[in-house]
């Protein structure tokens, strides 16, 4: 399987979001051996102070621990050379993951923060990036953040090339989030009787008007 012809058909991953919990473990990727002799050069044209190595994904790396494989390449595809740097940078994306704005968010982010150990770097597909961006950027903007330049989707390969994709059953593209889940209580219907009951049970009542939620 170490020949180029044997590797290429295996490198396009299709991950069904509904069964991410059943994703293959790291041992099941052993058909493609990691090449430690890549030495200092891991990405084309880039050199690092440390040689590329395959390491365990630590349990306290909340973003990617349990993603479906146990080991990752360091330096990663975002040029983070130490595990401390990886964990620090990855932690800022955990809140977005909890919003569940797109079923492929974790796969997309972890393909960059914690890339699986293979002979060569495999980036997320451009379409995966675009669908995650389109679904999650409105959530980010609500909290004052924008889609970062380092995750610019145009830099990633199309699905005609070798890349990581997420297959959504019965859909030609990822569904956009119907509503930004920043205030679940706002979606609850409040009936007049319930409102009066709470008002009468309170010592104080405030009359306010809300422009926008």
Question: Which secondary structure elements does this structure contain, and how are they paired or packed?
Answer:
Elements: H1 4-7, E1 13-15, E2 53-56, E3 71-74, H2 83-91, H3 94-99, H4 105-113, H5 126-142, E4 164-166, H6 192-200
Provide a compact summary of the structure.
It is a multi-pass membrane protein. By secondary structure, the protein is α+β, with helices and mostly antiparallel strands.
Structural description of this entry:
This protein is an alpha+beta fold. The protein has one domain: Frizzled cysteine-rich domain (Orthogonal Bundle). It contains 6 helices and 4 strands. Strands 1-4 form a two-stranded parallel sheet. A two-stranded antiparallel ribbon has the order 2-3. The longest helix has 17 residues, at 126-142. The protein is globular. The N and C termini lie far apart (56 Å).
């Amino acid at each position: 399987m170490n020949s180029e012809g044997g590797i290429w058909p295996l490198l396009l991953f299709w991950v069904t979001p509904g069964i991410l919990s059943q994703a293959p473990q790291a041992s099941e990727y052993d058909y493609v051996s990691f090449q430690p002799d890549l030495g200092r050069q891991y990405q084309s044209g880039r050199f690092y102070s440390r040689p590329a190595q395959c390491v365990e994904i630590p349990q306290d790396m909340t973003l990617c621990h349990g993603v479906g494989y146990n080991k990752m390449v360091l330096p990663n595809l975002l040029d983070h050379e130490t595990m401390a740097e990886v964990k620090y940078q990855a932690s800022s994306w955990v809140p977005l993951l909890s919003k569940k704005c797109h079923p492929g968010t974790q796969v997309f982010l972890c393909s960059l923060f914690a890339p699986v150990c293979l002979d060569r770097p495999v980036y997320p597909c451009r379409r995966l990036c675009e669908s995650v961006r389109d679904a999650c950027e409105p959530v980010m903007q609500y909290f004052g953040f924008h889609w970062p330049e380092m995750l610019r989707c145009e830099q990633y390969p199309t699905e005609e090339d070798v890349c990581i994709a997420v297959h959504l059953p019965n859909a030609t593209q990822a569904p956009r989030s119907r509503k930004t889940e920043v205030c679940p209580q706002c979606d609850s219907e409040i009936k007049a009787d319930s409102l009066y009951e709470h008002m009468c049970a309170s010592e104080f009542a405030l009359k306010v008007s809300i422009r926008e939620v």
